[in-house]
């Protein structure tokens, strides 16, 4: 399926000046249209009905319009400044950026943005008449910007990632990006309106597309490689600050805690699938094993084991039980690989679930009360800190879910630490070697079986830890929380986010959990959409949203330009990791 | 003794159902080494296709359950199943033919979820069709349903005649198709060496589509049989049946059509026997799936080439 080229290179050559004018004008007009009323009444999205008072979403649109105009204008500003030798250091950096490519991406982006806004207004207020004249102006401006940017000749390949910038610039950039991310996330989460949430997602998507196409994304990823520790620490700092942006509301914190549990499990799965390349379709069983272990040893009146050790011990036991299961499930890897392994793990997952629902006293020993599970699991109480109570810090009340959020954040930190250290160690390299060519790895002296077992056991241990907390967060554990679909979900998080990277997986997990929570109208169709998304993703971008560089190579081995491009980068990455 | 024979027959008819689905896994795997994970969903869609045909017919006939409904339902189910399978192959699998092994497997899971949800959400929206969010009763066609038949002291469920008969007919047809027709021999050639087959003038893409279509047609037969046997169908029926059928295919030796039939029958009998003859708490219907999966794991680990044996392929 190839999209026919309307804007041929010949056309672009003839009309690129017209295109630049159109793109610049379209961008500026789009930005200006934010001051016009877009909707007939204030009930649609956030209030867009005022003349001269842009709403937040209109401000976001204005931002996109300005980016488009700026990118288009850079085609004139750059040679003009070059001729007069103005600001040579800035100019040097600017010459590495792909402004035209950025303009093209933003050109599509503004059109998509206004399209979604108009559709949302139409749906929420009922009918196209509810779109005010300002909305049509914005649409025309976006169309002009789109056509204009399409008419520009393909610009240079950005090489910003090789720009040398001062460390303080790097760190300020990281801080700004994370802060913007926090603000956007906090704002998006506080929206009750599904349409607004979609529009914000669209904004984030367009912004990301612009950053990637213009090369700024490449620069940011180079910066984050240079200052990985700073990035990780500030990311955790931002996550730590998140509960304080909620004004004591626990609704979003409940979602955020679930996201963290899901993400922690997905990172564990990422060790098995992303690093070692072993497809595990029964991974949810490990989370379940952890949760059931913790539940049976909890203070719940329905717990079946009389021994009630402190939670730290329970958590370790839960992790160990999961790891033992991981060893058992991993042991066939000595003889089975590839698709067959996937089926073996799937069968193990099903066996786990059926066994748990059979341990009800009539079909087996009464360990977990069968399909009704273990309810009424009390809140944790660690070192006198009651997780069920509301604590007031700096005047902001932090509720039950906030407490668990902090606990999960701590566990997440440990998991990320373990993951990255393993990834950069001899063990991690062994895993990657097994993934890429098992026979060659074995010939090179990699302990293939041992490392595979370690991947299974290690990943399962992490999932077990998360499961122990999940039992207390959910307050009840039942077998039907651990069905195959949940395993498929976890896999989807890893695949969509990007195999082999922590950032990608966390992003994937967050999206998979957040979108259905926020979009009630999507909820009914979410499984349908996820199925479709998995199929499309495998076709369009099999390496995921934030892929591991080596992984990209594996999926696009026949694309020679890309191979050259990445191989140029790789030694740099190796040098970074080795130092 | 009668109880044992009852269970044996029960197991054989269950196994015939598995075998019909397993052939679909095996034919596709034999040719492109792809585990078509969504094949269980094709089985489900075949059952829904057969049901839809009956519903449409009933608008004219006023709900007749005469025997002549059966061939029409079969054709209807097959058409829908084959169409779904061919579209799936064309748009989801073909673009990934040279991708790493992980990609088609994940795609297959995606398709599987998609098809299930599609049926669940949209089947009931067609005017005149029942809501598919819970199980739908399947029409009781005369002769193949009703009181069990007493044959020499053995009670045989009437639906079982259909399953076993269908398996016999399909097996004979497959044997003829694969060994006696040009297309069948082309399939064998492609499964041995696709590149050389292409040089010999075989349209490999066409052969792959035919493999998917044959598998889907047999899955539709199984879907209809399953509806007759259990009396109702639902959108989730494909997952477990597909997994069991895959077990059957592996049990017999994946890639080998006779193996799929032998494996299916064996699995059915093992399941029936495990349900009836494992003593104590771990017997009974609650654990039968566990025993089937345990069998699957043991076979995969200790005899991956299966009972009948298949071409040895590198499954990395």
Short account of what is shown:
The complex is a heterodimer of chains A (579) and B (316). Chain A is an all-alpha fold and 579 residues long. Chain A has helices at 9-32, 56-84, 88-94, 99-125, 133-151, 167-189, 194-214, 216-226, 228-241, 251-275, 284-296, 311-330, 338-358, 400-423, 426-436, 438-443, 448-474, 484-497, 502-518, 520-523, 526-540, 549-555, 560-578, and strands at residues 381-382, 385-386, 391-393, 396-398.
Description of the structure:
The complex is a heterodimer of chains A (579) and B (316). Helices cover 69% and strands 2% of the residues of chain A. Chain A is built from 23 helices and 4 strands. Chain A has helices at residues 9-32, 56-84, 88-94, 99-125, 133-151, 167-189, 194-214, 216-226, 228-241, 251-275, 284-296, 311-330, 338-358, 400-423, 426-436, 438-443, 448-474, 484-497, 502-518, 520-523, 526-540, 549-555, 560-578; strands at residues 381-382, 385-386, 391-393, 396-398. In chain A, a hairpin with a 2-residue loop joins strand 1 (381-382) and strand 2. In chain A, helix 18 crosses helix 19. Residues 570-579 of chain A have low confidence and may be disordered. In chain B, strand 2 and strand 3 (154-156) form a beta hairpin. In chain B, helix 2 (39-61) runs parallel beside helix 4 (102-122) and helix 9 runs parallel beside helix 11 (288-302). With 316 residues, chain B is mainly alpha-helical. Mean pLDDT of chain B is 84; it is low at 312-316. Chain B is globular. Chain B starts with a helix and ends in a 14-residue tail after the last helix. At the A-B interface, helix 13, helix 18 and helix 21 of A face helix 4, helix 9 and helix 11 of B.
């Amino acid at each position: 399926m190839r999209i026919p080229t309307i804007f041929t290179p010949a056309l672009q050559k003839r009309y690129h000046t017209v295109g630049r004018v159109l793109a610049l004008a379209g961008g500026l007009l789009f930005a200006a249209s934010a001051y016009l009323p877009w909707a007939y009444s204030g009930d649609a999205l956030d209030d867009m009905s005022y003349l001269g008072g842009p709403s937040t979403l209109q401000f976001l649109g204005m931002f996109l319009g300005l980016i488009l105009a700026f990118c288009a204008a850079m085609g004139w500003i750059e040679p003009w400044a070059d001729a007069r030798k103005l600001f040579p250091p800035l100019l040097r950096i600017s010459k590495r950026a792909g402004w035209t490519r950025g303009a093209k991406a933003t050109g599509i982006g503004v059109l998509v943005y206004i399209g979604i806004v108009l559709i949302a207004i139409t749906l929420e207020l009922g009918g196209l008449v509810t779109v005010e004249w300002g909305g049509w102006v914005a649409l025309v401006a976006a169309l002009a910007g789109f056509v204009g940017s399409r008419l520009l000749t393909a610009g240079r390949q950005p090489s910003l990632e090789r720009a040398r910038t001062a460390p303080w610039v790097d760190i300020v950039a990281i801080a700004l990006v994370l802060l913007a991310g926090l603000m956007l996330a906090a704002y998006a989460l506080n929206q009750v309106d599904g349409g607004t949430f979609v529009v914000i997602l669209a904004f984030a998507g367009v912004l990301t597309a612009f950053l990637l196409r213009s090369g700024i994304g490449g620069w940011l990823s180079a910066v984050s490689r240079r200052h990985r520790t700073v990035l990780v620490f500030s990311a955790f700092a931002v996550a730590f600050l998140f509960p304080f942006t909620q004004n004591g509301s626990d609704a979003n914190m409940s979602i955020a805690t679930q996201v963290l549990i899901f993400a922690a499990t997905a990172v564990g799965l990422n060790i098995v699938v992303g690093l070692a390349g072993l497809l595990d379709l029964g991974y949810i069983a490990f989370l379940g094993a952890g949760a059931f272990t913790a539940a049976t040893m909890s203070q719940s009146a329905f717990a079946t084991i009389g021994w009630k050790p402190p939670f730290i011990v329970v958590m370790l036991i839960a992790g160990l039980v999961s790891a033992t299961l991981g060893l058992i499930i991993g042991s066939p890897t000595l003889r089975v690989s590839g698709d067959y392994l996937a089926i073996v793990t799937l069968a193990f997952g099903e066996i786990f679930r059926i066994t748990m629902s059979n341990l009800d006293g009539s079909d087996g020993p009464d360990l977990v009360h069968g399909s009704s599970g273990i309810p009424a699991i009390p809140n944790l109480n660690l070192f006198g800190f009651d997780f069920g109570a509301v604590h007031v810090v700096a005047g902001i009340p932090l509720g039950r879910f906030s407490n668990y959020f902090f606990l999960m954040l701590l566990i997440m930190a440990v998991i990320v630490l373990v993951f990255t250290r393993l990834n950069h160690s001899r063990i991690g390299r062994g895993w990657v070697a097994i993934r890429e060519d098992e026979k060659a790895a074995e010939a090179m002296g990699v302990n293939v079986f041992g490392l595979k077992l370690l991947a299974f056991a290690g990943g399962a241990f992490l999932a077990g830890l998360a499961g122990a907390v999940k039992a207390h967060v959910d307050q009840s554990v039942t077998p039907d929380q651990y069905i195959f679909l949940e395993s498929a979900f976890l896999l989807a998080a890893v695949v969509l986010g990007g195999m082999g990277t922590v950032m990608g997986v966390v992003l994937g997990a967050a999206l998979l959990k957040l979108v259905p929570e926020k979009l009630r109208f999507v909820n009914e169709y979410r499984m349908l959409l996820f199925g479709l998304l998995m199929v499309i993703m495998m076709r369009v971008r099999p390496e995921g949203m934030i892929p591991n560089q080596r992984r990209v190579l594996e999926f696009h081995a026949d694309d020679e330009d890309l191979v050259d491009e990445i191989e140029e980068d790789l030694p740099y990455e190796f040098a970074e990791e080795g130092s | 003794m009668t109880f044992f024979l009852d269970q044996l027959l029960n197991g054989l008819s269950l196994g015939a159902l598995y075998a019909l689905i397993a052939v679909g896994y095996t034919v596709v795997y034999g040719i492109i080494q792809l585990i078509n994970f969504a094949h269980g969903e094709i089985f489900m869609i075949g059952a829904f296709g057969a049901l839809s045909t009956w519903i449409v017919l009933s608008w004219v006939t006023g709900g007749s359950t005469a025997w002549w409904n059966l061939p029409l339902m079969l054709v209807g189910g097959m058409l829908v199943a084959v169409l779904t399978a061919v579209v799936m192959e064309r748009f989801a699998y073909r673009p990934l033919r040279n991708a790493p092994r992980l990609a088609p497997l994940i795609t297959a899971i995606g398709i599987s979820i998609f098809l299930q949800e599609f049926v669940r959400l949209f089947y009931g929206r067609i005017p005149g069709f029942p809501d598919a969010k819970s199980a739908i009763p399947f029409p009781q066609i005369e002769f193949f349903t009703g009181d069990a038949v007493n044959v020499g002291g053995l009670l045989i469920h009437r639906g079982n005649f259909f399953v076993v008969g269908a398996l016999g007919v399909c097996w004979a047809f497959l044997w003829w198709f694969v060994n006696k027709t040009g297309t069948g021999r082309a399939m064998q050639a492609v499964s041995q060496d696709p590149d050389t087959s292409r040089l010999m003038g075989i349209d490999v893409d066409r052969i792959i589509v035919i493999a998917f279509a044959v598998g889907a047609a047999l899955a539709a037969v199984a879907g209809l049989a399953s509806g007759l046997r259990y009396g109702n169908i639902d959108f989730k029926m494909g997952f477990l049946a597909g997994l069991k059928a895959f077990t059957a295919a592996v049990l017999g030796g994946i890639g080998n059509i006779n193996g799929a039939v032998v494996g299916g029958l064996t699995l059915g009998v093992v399941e029936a026997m495990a349900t009836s003859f494992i003593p104590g708490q771990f017997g009974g219907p609650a654990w039968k799936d566990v025993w089937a999966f345990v069998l699957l794991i043991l076979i995969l680990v200790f005899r991956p080439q299966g009972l009948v044996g298949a071409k040895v392929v590198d499954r990395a």
